[in-house]
Amino acid sequence: MDTLFDFHTIMYILAGAGVGLAVGITGVGGGSLMTPLLLLFGFPTNIAIGTDLIYASITKAGGVFSHQRQSTIQWDLVFRLARGSIPASIVTVIILNVYFDNPESYQHVLVTTLGVMLMLTSVVLLFKGRLQAFSKSALEGDSFLIRHRNALTTLMGVLLGICVTLSSVGAGAFGAAILLVLYPNLSPIKVIGTDIAHAVPLTLIAGLGHLSLGNVNFVLLISLLIGSLPAIHIGTLLGKRVPDKILQPTLASILLIIGVKYAFF
């Protein structure tokens, strides 16, 4: 029994290292990679999502300090997103707790949302440049987006809060896409810093919500962190030498295929 446990633990550590390496090299959010991998290992969807949310909040926390030192976080935008996403996340957890008898009864909701969010992440990765170009033209002059940008940011935060809580995916790529579309003149480094600063409290609140529902496996969580934390730093160093134009489209295509599988099959 001990040998089996040790073998599983080693596999989870290696999985954490693999995802951490991929995140460091490509910059793609860990949720879109980790949750499907945990499902492949045979974990129930609720455990995979709940554990991954806590994992994401811890792994992203260091990035907030780094970006704050570089003054690359737009805190006003973080608060606009959070005033929508945090309440939405809390309400989503309450609905799961009140309207469903057990985790098995809402598995289909989690799986379908996961599939949709993986597909959206893929689209964002493939068409990020076009999204930004479109938003720059749409935000010229006194457009609807300009007049209602603050409210739209909060509204998008609500959508993000619901989707991240139900799938653990989207706090990275989808959050960045919202900033790119609504604030196209924001520099790339500030998009990343602002997105990470918002993702940490969102994934933490969503993760704690899932913890209250019994959806977090702590042995798995610790194993993933042991593998991923050093691997992310190694991946970041390797990422400077690997062509981004090859990696991200390849990864986006894989996520699209996985997303279609979970959303429709």
**Which of globular, elongated, flat, extended, rod-shaped describes the shape?**
globular
Number of helices: 11
Distance between the termini: 35 Å
- The SS-based structural class is mainly alpha
Largest sheet features: none
Q: Would you count the extended β strands for me?
A: 0
Mean pLDDT: 84
H-E string: HHHHHHHHHHH
Poorly predicted ranges: none
**In angstroms, what is the radius of gyration?**
18 Å
Strand content: under 5%
- Helical content stands at over 70%
Describe this structure in words.
The protein is built from eleven helices and no strands. The radius of gyration is 18 Å and the shape is globular. The model has no long low-confidence stretch (mean pLDDT 84). Helix 4 crosses helix 7 and helix 5 packs antiparallel against helix 7. It has 265 residues and is mainly α. It has one domain.
Secondary structure elements and pairings:
Elements: H1 2-26, H2 30-40, H3 45-69, H4 75-99, H5 107-138, H6 144-147, H7 149-167, H8 173-182, H9 188-212, H10 218-239, H11 244-264
Helix pairs in contact: 1-2, 1-10, 2-3, 3-9, 3-10, 4-7, 4-9, 5-7, 5-8, 5-11, 7-8, 8-9
In short:
This protein is mainly α. The chain has helices at 2-26, 30-40, 45-69, 75-99, 107-138, 144-147, 149-167, 173-182, 188-212, 218-239, 244-264.
Search tags:
globular; 0% strand; mainly alpha; 265 residues
